[in-house]
Amino acid sequence: MARRLAAISESTASASLSRARDSSLLIELAGDWRLSGTVPSADAARREIASDPKPPKVILDGRMIGSWDSALLIFIESISEASRMRQVPVDLALLPAGVARLISLAEAVPERKGARAETRGVPLLERIGMGALSAWGSAQGFVTLIGALAIAFGKLIRGVARYRRVDLLQLIQECGANALGIVTLISFLVGVILAFMGAVQLQQFGASIYVADLVGIGIVREMGAMMTGIIMAGRTGAAFAAQLGTMKVTEEIDALTTMGISPVEFLVMPRFIALVLMMPLLCLYSDLMGIAGGAAVGATMLGIPLKLYYQETIAAVTLTQLFGGLFKATTYGALIALAGCVSGMQCGGSASAVGDATTRAVVSGIVLIVAACGLFAVIFNVLGI
Amino acid sequence: MSLESDFEPAGSLRKGAAPAERPPHITVRDLTMAFGDFVVMRDLNFVVRRGDIFAIMGGSGCGKSTLLKHLLGLIEPAKGEIFYDGFNFTKADPDAREQMLRRFGVLYQKGALWSSMTLAENVGLPLGEFTDLAPAQIRELACLKLAMVGLRGFEDYYPSDISGGMQKRAALARAMALDPEILFFDEPSAGLDPISSSLLDELILELRQSLGATIVIVTHELPSIFTVADNSIFLDTETRTAIAGGDPRELLAHSKHPTVRRFLTRGRETGETLHNG
């Protein structure tokens, strides 16, 4: 006498549980088992398997099943897992032919020991430690690259460095001439902004003419180099990291190494040279554009004649300030090139690693620029420049 | 020597000195490979003899390519040493290593052609760096090497302009540029159709015969293994060691190890199929 336990019926798919004479659990499945439709839950059956005394056997009867897909597999897998835990045999003979095959396929290979990743939460202290270790790692990479670069420059001076002049010229064009557009735009606008901010205050004292001093000194001493640096970190530093990172992923860097060509000589050195050469030029150009921006505001909003503005600027800005700014720009260029190349060379082996490398290149480039800027402010102050 | 020419059947290449009589070219002693605390393979010991085609076999992810990178000095071993012609490569200083590397040719899994250079420039770069040839001669030689792998007329294409199989062949031309003593192949037939892949096998045999090069191949392609390899090592993921070595055909005939048998018979012998019949 079969004892009816539960009947779950949702839309067309259904599973009904009953006990056979020998108290085996009989699960009768019927209807269409589709992921798109609603499917009965396996909880009732699992509870039945887990209950005491445990059923000697589970029989799955799928003779009434219409169509099926993975929805049925999930249900059956869930039941066989519960049965496995209590060591109850499951009879799949009455299921549609494909189902039993797919289930046995899933169960054919036992879980490899240690394969499952640990999903425990990482405590804060450990996270700080890991962060510190990874920062230490990149710092080491930075120092190593500087060393390798020094060796490469040694070879360059002796005329035995291996790099392609074509590459160098192309890089110079890419990070020099091709950056002029964006540098023009940003620098001009920074000049305009500085002039506006200064004008509001200076007009109160009737000293509008000093806008020229403010813009001139501000741009030439700090903002020209700083803005060019930040533009180049986002533009060229990122490009360096992405280029080298992708070359790492496609094993092009390994191919250079095994050919006996140092990737630092062949790839990093030309990039470093190109950016260090181009940064002061871009900075000079940026200074000019910034002053032009200030002059535009002076001429149109403040009514300062251009000639007067020019004379005031010439009088205010000293050569020392100009060279100070250019020196800073050159340093920023070196830092950006190093940050970009280190990130690229340390890149992992996947597409997302290239993305990470690019992000790291820009972030560390900008951080280094700002830190160097602070350091320069102190040093220049001490030197009285 | 072109892809289209007639090749002698593989068997005829096996005449001559028996493997054991040829001098060792690569000797690996107690090599343990690890990433941090994670040990990939431990205590590998094997010898590749001069003129051998040596296959590094094993399932996916067992560390075949990692072993290759160790042989090339791209990764430092956790333990053990690698000798080339009795010269300790692991302990060598960077300059000596660079000298040795110039005698190697490597075909990478993804080709690894330099994407910013044309095919002729790719093949010509090592020639330009390590020989005193004039640019015109380099170009000529690069074109010849490309023609040898069936890429005549593609000299001025960029790697991204040609198909994966052609990239592989171009990379092979670059690997052969300096007439290397040892050629390393990382999964040469990965991503190639069966015909291209068998042509590549023939090319490998031809290279050994014409250049007299020692060839090390990382692969899990059975047809390739049985066609070209005359010695091998079998890496096992479970035990993290080498569980077999020798002529793959001998292994197929005589090996008793279940994993090796399963691998070499594609699981047929142990009845390991998807649906258990």
Question: Could you give a quick summary of the protein structure above?
Answer:
The complex is a heterodimer of chains A (385) and B (277). By secondary structure, chain A is an alpha/beta fold.
Average pLDDT figure of chain A: 88
> What structural class do helix, strand and pairing data of chain B support?
alpha/beta
**Beta content of chain B:** 15-25%
Helix content of chain A: 55-70%
Q: What is the CA–CA distance across the termini of chain A? A: 103 Å
User: What's the gyration radius of chain A in Å?
Assistant: 35 Å
Structure notes:
The complex is a heterodimer of chains A (385) and B (277). Chain A starts with a strand and ends with a helix. Chain A has a 5-stranded mixed β-sheet, with helices on one face. Chain A has 2 domains: 3-108, Transcription Regulator spoIIAA (2-Layer Sandwich); 140-383, no CATH class. Chain A has helices at residues 43-50, 70-85, 97-108, 124-158, 165-175, 180-204, 211-249, 252-258, 263-300, 306-316, 319-345, 351-383; strands at residues 3-9, 14-19, 25-33, 58-68, 90-94. Chain A is built from 12 helices and 5 strands. In chain A, a hairpin with a 4-residue loop joins strand 1 (3-9) and strand 2 (14-19). In chain A, helix 4 packs across helix 9 (263-300) and helix 6 runs antiparallel to helix 7 (211-249). Chain A is an alpha/beta fold and 385 residues long. The radius of gyration of chain A is 35 Å and the shape is elongated. Mean pLDDT of chain B is 82; it is low at 1-17 and 273-277. Chain B has 9 helices and 10 strands. Chain B has 2 domains: 22-103 and 182-272, Rossmann fold (3-Layer(aba) Sandwich); 110-179, no CATH class. A 6-stranded mixed β-sheet of chain B has the order 6-7-8-3-9-10, sandwiched between helices. Chain B has a 4-stranded antiparallel β-sheet with strand order 2-1-4-5, covered by helices on one side. Chain B has 277 residues and is of the alpha/beta class. In chain B, 34% of the residues lie in helices and 23% in strands. The chains are: A alpha/beta (385), B alpha/beta (277). At the A-B interface, helix 3 and helix 8 of A face helix 2 and helix 3 of B.
